[in-house]
Backbone:
């Protein structure tokens, strides 16, 4: 029998566990951002500003759909982590296999619906006519690759639930290298344009998903199930949907606000779209740390909840917020000093208006990164404790804030209004998450000095 690679996060110093678990997730996230940035860098440098705008015009729609898939898969893995923490291995395998069945159904339905209505949605968000065809070329192919996206995210989430955050990092590293090589091949040699960048992306995702399958089969005997454990069951599916759908919807609700914002940016013209596209690529790269700590917290909280250790959950949340705050200050300094130079990876130095817009966006955004760090920790902790529906309201807060900015302030403030939108949304989410987290801990008796194991 293969040696188990599971990691128990119910014992040991919380901040060390969180850091050790976060680092591979962070590296994987950075490589994921790297191959997302590679699309923009190669497209912007080889195909020009208009092509870059075509890729950027669809970014909010990708966030909406792919964000739902990613959030759903993360939610499906929470019962796996909780079962592992409680030592209920048969139940863990049942949750894992039922999540495979549900994910397959969602993959088919989402792919068909998004592919059919792709152009209509781009028109609905006021994509400029000059970049509409390019945006459709890119987005349609990305939507066709949704099954690969779900495959990787589900299996990577299950690996992390079992305590293995290193393998998904290694697989994303391989995917990033493949994506960059294929980008250059498809765009500069085959002349496939922005569609070539999309084909490179989904191909690399398929490879990373295949590597996850190989890893689970070879290294995790805990997931080797008998025929009874592989059988679809209503009870386990309902539990998975109860956690997965709220997490997916929370991300999608947040994305609706982003679509409103993208629509407002599209209305400002090609220069603003290009500026926003470059700024987002840089922002997402620097936000990888916040997301990685949040992902680690979902597993950490899930396992400790299964073990009945709310005292460790409370201590872990404090440690994670401290990590986020230290990084937020460091990131703000780097972006204030070098944001313009990083933007030159995407556009030529002669595009001074675009570079000025990007630097302004990064200066304003980075001043509020501490709020974003708190948001990721508390939202992930709430979800890890099984309160995914409560976390939806933080997404609603973000959606309302972005929608209000897009409708009332951006038309008056122009690109400056775009620069302030995310920060207002983060503040709105924190105003909900902080009291919600404290109430959930209080409700579970987590303010007692030590909570006995369940």
Residues:
């Amino acid at each position: 029998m293969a040696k188990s690679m599971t990691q128990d996060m119910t014992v040991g110093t919380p901040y060390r566990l969180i850091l050790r678990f976060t680092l591979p997730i962070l590296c994987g996230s950075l490589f994921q951002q790297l191959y997302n940035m590679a699309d923009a860098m190669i497209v912007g440098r080889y195909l020009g500003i208009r092509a870059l705008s075509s890729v950027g015009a669809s970014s909010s729609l990708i966030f909406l759909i792919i964000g739902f898939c990613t959030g759903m898969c993360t939610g499906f893995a929470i019962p796996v982590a909780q079962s592992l923490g409680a030592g209920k291995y048969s139940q863990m395998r049942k949750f894992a296999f039922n999540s495979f069945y549900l994910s397959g159904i969602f993959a088919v339905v989402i792919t068909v619906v998004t592919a059919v209505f792709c152009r209509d949605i781009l028109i609905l968000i006021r994509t400029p006519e000059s970049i509409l065809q390019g945006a459709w070329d890119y987005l349609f192919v990305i939507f066709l690759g949704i099954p690969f996206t779900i495959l990787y995210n589900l299996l990577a989430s299950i690996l992390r639930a079992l305590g293995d955050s290193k393998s998904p990092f290694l697989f994303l590293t391989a995917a990033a290298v493949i994506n960059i090589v294929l980008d250059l091949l498809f765009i500069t040699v085959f002349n496939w344009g922005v569609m070539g960048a999309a084909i490179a992306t989904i191909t690399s995702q398929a490879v990373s998903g295949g590597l996850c399958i190989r890893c689970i089969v070879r290294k995790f005997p805990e997931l080797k199930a008998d025929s009874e454990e592989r059988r679809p069951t209503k009870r386990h599916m309902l539990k998975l949907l109860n956690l997965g759908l709220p997490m997916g919807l929370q991300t999608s609700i947040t994305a609706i606000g982003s679509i409103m914002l993208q629509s407002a940016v599209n209305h400002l013209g090609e220069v603003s779209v290009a500026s926003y596209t470059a700024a987002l690529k840089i922002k997402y790269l620097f936000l990888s740390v916040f997301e990685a700590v949040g992902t680690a917290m979902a597993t950490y909280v899930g396992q400790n909840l299964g073990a009945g250790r709310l005292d460790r959950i409370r201590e872990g949340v404090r440690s994670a917020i401290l990590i986020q705050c230290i990084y937020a200050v460091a990131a703000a300094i780097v972006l204030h000093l070098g944001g313009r130079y990083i933007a030159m990876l995407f556009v030529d130095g002669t595009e001074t208006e675009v570079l000025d817009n990007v630097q302004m966006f990064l200066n304003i955004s980075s001043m509020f990164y501490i709020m974003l760090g708190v948001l990721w920790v508390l939202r992930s902790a709430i979800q890890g404790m099984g309160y995914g529906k409560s976390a939806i309201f933080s997404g609603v807060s973000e959606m309302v804030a972005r929608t209000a900015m897009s409708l009332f302030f951006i038309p008056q403030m122009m690109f400056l209004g775009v620069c302030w939108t995310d920060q207002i949304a983060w503040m709105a989410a924190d105003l909900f998450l902080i009291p919600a987290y404290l109430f959930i801990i209080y409700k579970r008796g987590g303010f007692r000095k030590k909570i006995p194991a369940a």
The CA atoms of residues 261 and 406 lie 5 Å apart.
